[in-house]
Amino acid sequence: MLTSYFYCNFANSNLFYLKEQLNHPVFKAVSEVAAQMQLKCYVIGGYVRDIIMERPSVDIDIMVIGSGIDLAKNVATLNGKDTKVKVFKNFGTAVFNYKYQDKVWQIEFVGARKESYRTDSRKPIVEDGTLEDDQNRRDFTINALAISLNKESYGELVDPFDGLNDINKKIIRTPLEPDITFSDDPLRMLRAIRFATQLDFFIQVPTIESIIKNADRIKIVSGERIIEEINKIILAKKPSIGFKLLYQTGLLKIIFPEFIELKGAEYVDGKGHKDNFLHTLEVLDNLSLHTDNLWLRWSAILHDIAKPNTKKFVKGTGWTFHAHEFVGAKMVPDIFKKLKLPLNEKMKYVEKLVLLHLRPIALVDEIVSDSAVRRLLFEAGDDIDDLMLLCESDITSKNQEKVKKYTTNFKIVRQKLKEIEEKDRIRNFQPPITGELIMEVFGLTPCKEIGTIKNKIKDAILDGIINNDYQQAYDYMLKLGNKLGLKVAKN
Ligand code: CTP
């Protein structure tokens, strides 16, 4: 399909945007060098899709009928001798960075392939191919669009599968029979759902049916590749779209079975509880309106993860999920490990938010003591604002009266937190007396009394018995030492 077709389908603004993008000096340079080398080359894939959709992108893929590595090296020389070309010989690809308009662009060159297109595959490329071969083997019609960089047809769109129309109609579908496309690389099943979520597109029926049929094949894909796609779904504007599709296709059950456990509602004596899967997705969507923090979004996904394990029906009371926040926090490391998520401070942060997610609402009570507020500030530290966002997103009642009440309650909690923080500076507070000082004052070598004294000083400050002040804490330490029968060695 040729340029004229392309032009008549697009509004002037799109056309102007596309033309502007094709003025990128890298495209001019590639075109020039390719002509000298008598090679045919095209911009292809996600970059083309994104400029058509006017989504700015700095990742450019150039596909060459021939050696992508040779072309990359020659283009890089034009760009100055400091340009470092990274070559991946096994995959026949080469990449370099290019600074333009205050941005760093990543320009990747790849030779056209007959086999499935996978830049991250451990398998080396098998056979060189034509433009048509290469487009046939791409994942979706919207990702198979190519724009010519050849002099005689510069800027012409090559769209054998009507991908442009699919962009207009918001459709995800595979260029070949979906079973073939997915068997080439089963990760594409997840990619279909990821694109549907990110772009708010529909997955065409035969394509979704093929995902359902082939879901089990996701097991041959590495956990690292899977979690990359899952995280992209989580970072989308409305992540629930992706999780509902993952659930419907059977992929979620394989990838993240703990999440499936939240699905459904049980009834005893006519009393049911809410579907915690749908509730969690609502919390996640609510939260996503306010933050791009992936780990805070993960906290939303996991905040009620232990509800199925802790669920009980108590006669006269109804359904209870006692201690689900403690059990849930304990489940976080295992889930992170299984899902190949980082086992570092990000995990600790998620654990902490899951553990504390019920605490702010408990502070609503009129008679709540300053001490309870101080304790929460101390335990949450700098993450208190994130915790409040999570809790506010946790309000998913359909009853507007209740929502109003909860929202007002959270305003009260925020006010209390603010007042106590301003007064006592508890957030990130370090007890003013160190273990070294206690040892020095009482002439101690490391022993359990030091920990006891330190903790009691901390508790006294949090409970408001003494102020967060060095002298008061020092005097209190002397009192505690005296009670424990310790002698002052140095005052
Ligand atoms: N591709 C594919 N099959 C895959 C991965 C990638 O066919 N499993 C092709 C698609 O044509 C895709 C291109 O390689 O457009 C580039 O891949 P990638 O950078 O992973 O995706 P993008 O489409 O650029 O999207 P994003 O940058 O959002 O990941």
Strand order across the largest sheet = 3-4-5-2-1-6-7
Per CATH, the architecture of the largest domain is: 2-Layer Sandwich
What's the total count of β strands? 13
Q: What ligand molecules are bound, each kind once?
A: cytidine-5'-triphosphate
Structural class: alpha+beta
- Major sheet attributes: 7 strands, mixed
Cα distance spanning the termini: 89 Å
CATH class of the largest domain: Alpha Beta
Strand-residue proportion: 5-15%
Average pLDDT rating: 91
- Give the CA-based shape: elongated
* Unreliable runs: 1-9
Considering DSSP H and I runs of 4 or more, what fraction of the residues is helical? 40-55%
What is the count of DSSP helices, taking H or I runs of 4+ residues?
26
CATH fold node name of the largest domain: Beta Polymerase, domain 2
Q: Would you identify the CATH H-level superfamily of the largest domain?
A: Beta Polymerase, domain 2
Taking Cα atoms only, what radius of gyration do you get, to the nearest Å?
Answer: 30 Å
- Quickly count the domains: 3
What does this structure look like?
There is one protein chain. This protein has 491 residues and is α+β, with helices and mostly antiparallel strands. It folds into three domains: 1-169, Beta Polymerase, domain 2 (2-Layer Sandwich), CATH 3.30.460; 290-424, no CATH class; 435-483, no CATH class. Helix content is 53%, strand content 10%. It has helices at residues 3-8, 12-22, 25-37, 46-52, 68-78, 131-136, 163-169, 178-184, 187-199, 205-214, 223-234, 240-249, 251-255, 257-260, 276-288, 294-302, 307-310, 324-338, 345-356, 359-362, 370-380, 384-393, 400-424, 435-442, 448-462, 470-483; strands at 40-44, 59-65, 86-88, 93-100, 103-111, 146-148, 157-158, 171-172, 202-203, 267-268, 271-272, 312-314, 318-320. The strands form four sheets. A seven-stranded mixed sheet has the order 3-4-5-2-1-6-7. β6 (146-148) and β7 form a beta hairpin. The chain starts with a helix and ends in an 8-residue tail after the last helix. The structure holds cytidine-5'-triphosphate. Cytidine-5'-triphosphate binds next to β2 and α9. Cytidine-5'-triphosphate (CTP) binds at residues 45-46, 59, 61, 117-118, 138-139, 143, 185, 187-188, 191.
